[in-house]
Design brief:
5-stranded antiparallel β-sheet, 6 helices, 31 strands, globular
Length: 535
């Protein structure tokens, strides 16, 4: 069956790779906390609670002061659109910003109130030089303490004011002659998620490894040119992209190949979100090594000189296969955690770059999450247990867990396909009282390899001490493939990537015959769901 060739393996990796992206550098000075709306942890960042892809500069995915609630009301928006990146929240906690990857003539930056009003959208883009183009789908907005927002697209860097007015736009570095380009009319040297340095500059690392530092006020480039020395990874031909993945206009067809290569670490140097130490100002970037097939964690410092800022490589530590996950730092910024494509999780000393320990998981280069007690949590690939928790000080496994029991309490068993199964499909978020993970419930199906045909999607709560899945918090109309921001008041923002549902879509005609009575394969919906606690 042709479909089987396309879909047996791909989607089991997609949801674990969507959330890795990259950026660089810093000095030892901190920004003074002159604005009360800034983050206590990192004053340049918005104090709204979730100001970048993995919540804050340490990429820990922590929702501090947030607790589960008994009941929620929900609203949805952007149906029919794949959202592969998280929304970021304003300092006053009243609005958030979401990017998309739609074709020309449509907008790719959207501002909503928390209550569901569409406040504004960026001007519909027309060509590579006009408007926010579709590469924004994998460039998370970051929000500063003043409420201004910053993001990149295929070839430009943007800054907007909170009301949607343009602050500045500047070009990104041009791709080199030997850099892969999927579309000659849409030049790409995209940056993934930018960061704020401890000095308050904006810093980004492009797909091809260019490190750029901008003045936040006017977009001036402040550093001397610098490109990471790693090798370009080869074009990935291991897995063929499913024809229906993000189809029907959910993402601009012109960037689907680029998105696929980025997710599988092909043809680029850098695909991950950097971490920023608030203690030393050092930037941590996971990218390719100068050794073939290996990943490397770079520790980057900013050195100020008469000719501008020089980006200096303080250490370069090779790890395993692939370009790695988005690095996350321990709560005191002493250690950096990164995974490789073989599932090894590494703890690396943030000052020396020495590897402290490594532990085998099935995380497939998924981003690590750091709990408030420095327990490290990784999402694992099916059919392995949904999650694994690891002691940050020793690398010893604390627990591994899945949600199969909760799936059996939610869906019926089938005569042919048996008991329902759970498959995690988004990066965990730690709250004060639980670990929240987007999970697809479905049934095992054999297509040369066991897969889970999705039937229902939930945000599931796991016990922090034992790993036991104890509650379906809210149902979702589609799979996540994403991070899940949670606000301090308990409001949950769920961007829906529709990776599983769109990729498995051609199987529905066959799969529905075998599913238990009343069950249907979940179809792609995409969009955004916001769950607000009921008082």
């Amino acid at each position: 069956m042709i479909i089987a060739k396309y879909m047996i393996n791909q989607l089991l990796f997609i949801v674990f790779l969507l959330l890795s992206l990259v950026i660089c550098t810093a000095n030892a000075e901190r920004v003074s906390a002159s604005n009360s709306l800034g983050s206590v942890e990192a004053p340049a960042y918005s104090g709204g609670g979730w100001s970048t892809l993995h919540q804050g500069p340490g990429n820990r995915d922590q929702a501090r002061d947030a607790y589960l609630h008994d009941k929620y009301r929900t609203w949805t928006a952007l149906e029919g659109v794949s959202l592969l990146i998280a929304p970021s929240i304003s300092p006053d906690k009243k609005r958030f910003y979401q990017t998309s990857g739609l074709a020309a003539g449509q907008s790719n930056l959207h501002a909503f109130s928390v209550e569901g009003e569409l406040l504004w959208q960026s001007q519909p883009w027309t060509d590579a030089d006009n408007g926010v183009d579709p590469c924004a789908v994998l460039s998370n907005v970051i929000v500063d303490a003043e409420g201004d927002l910053y993001l990149g697209d295929c070839n430009q860097m943007f800054a907007f004011h909170p009301d949607g007015s343009k602050k500045w736009t500047v070009p990104l570095p041009l791709a080199a002659d030997d850099d892969w380009q999927p579309d000659p009319d849409l030049p790409i040297n995209a940056l993934t998620t930018p960061v704020f340095t401890v000095e308050g500059y904006v810093l980004g690392v492009t797909n091809y490894g260019d490190v750029v530092i901008w003045n936040r006020d006017d977009g001036r480039v402040l550093n001397q040119p610098m490109r990471l020395p790693g090798l370009l990874s080869p074009y990935s031909e291991v897995l063929k992209q499913p024809e229906t993945l993000w189809g029907d206009g959910m993402i601009d067809p012109r960037i689907r190949e680029w998105s696929w290569q980025l997710l599988f670490g092909g043809a680029m140097r850098s695909m991950n979100t950097p971490a920023v130490s608030q203690k030393t100002g050092r930037i941590f970037v996971a990218a390719t090594s100068t050794e073939p097939s290996l990943g490397r964690l770079y520790g980057l410092d900013l050195i100020h000189g008469e000719q501008g800022i020089v980006v200096e490589i303080a250490f370069a530590t090779d790890f395993g296969i692939g370009s790695g996950s988005s690095p996350a730092t321990s709560n005191d910024d002493s250690y950096v955690y990164v995974s490789d494509e073989e599932g090894y999780l590494y703890s690396i000393d943030a000052l020396s770059g020495d590897i402290v320990w490594r532990t085998k998981t099935a995380a497939t280069a998924g981003s690590a999450v750091v709990d408030f007690d420095d327990t490290i949590i990784v999402l694992q690939a099916y059919p392995n247990p949904t999650m694994m928790a690891i002691h940050g000080d020793s690398g010893e496994v604390k627990w591994s867990s899945n949600a199969d029991q909760l799936a059996s309490e939610t869906l019926p068993s089938g005569f042919i396909l048996g008991a329902p199964q759970a498959s995690g499909n988004g990066i965990p978020t730690v709250t004060e009282d639980a670990i929240l993970v987007p999970v697809a419930y479905g049934y095992k199906f054999w297509l040369g390899r066991t897969i889970v045909i999705p039937v229902a999607n939930y945000l599931v709560a796991f016990d922090k001490d034992t790993g036991v899945a104890f509650r379906n918090v809210v149902s979702m109309p589609d799979d996540s493939s994403n991070t899940t921001p949670v606000m301090a008041n308990g409001t949950i923002l769920s961007p829906l990537g529709a990776a599983m549902t769109s990729g498995f879509k051609p199987l529905a005609t066959i799969a529905n015959w075998f599913l238990p009575e009343g069950m249907q394969q979940a179809m792609p919906v995409g969009g955004l769901q916001v769950a607000i606690p009921e008082k």
